[in-house]
Amino acid sequence: RFLVSGPYITMPVGTWRAQVSLSFDDDVSHRRFRIDWGGVETYASHEFCPGRSGRFDITLEHHWAESSPAELRIVVLEGVFHGHLLFEGAVISRL
């Protein structure tokens, strides 16, 4: 159920923000999703149901106590037989 994962680029120590842009069509807009941002084992998460079709921006922050790989995951939490989710990218910035 992982739709997007990566990029596993090593992040320096510090707090980093990920602003994720996603679009959903009507067929998947009533399904539950989760976005994870951070390290492979410790990360910030946000569960949501879009509730309507359209474009959404979701922001998460995670603090790296030591340099380690970053992972951004988009996970669908329930079965889906058809529909479209478009990952429009993520902007990563240091806080």
Describe the structure.
With 95 residues, the chain is mainly beta. It contains no helices and eight strands. The chain has strands spanning 2-4, 7-11, 14-24, 33-38, 43-48, 54-64, 68-76, 85-94. Strands 1, 2, 4, 5 and 7 form a five-stranded antiparallel sheet that branches. A three-stranded antiparallel sheet has the order 6-3-8, with no helix packed on it. Strand 4 (33-38) and strand 5 form a beta hairpin. The radius of gyration is 14 Å and the shape is elongated. The mean pLDDT is 96.
Pairing-aware structural class of the strands and helices? mainly beta
The biggest beta sheet reads:
5 strands, antiparallel
In DSSP terms (H or I, runs of 4 or more residues), the helix count works out at 0
Taking the alpha carbons of the first and last residues, their distance comes to 31 Å
Rounded mean pLDDT is: 96
Helical proportion, percent range = under 10%
Radius of gyration of CA atoms, rounded to a whole number? 14 Å
Oligomer: single chain
Unreliable sequence segments: none
- 3D shape: elongated
Number of strands: 8
Question: How would you spell out the order of helices and strands?
Answer: EEEEEEEE
Strand content: over 45%
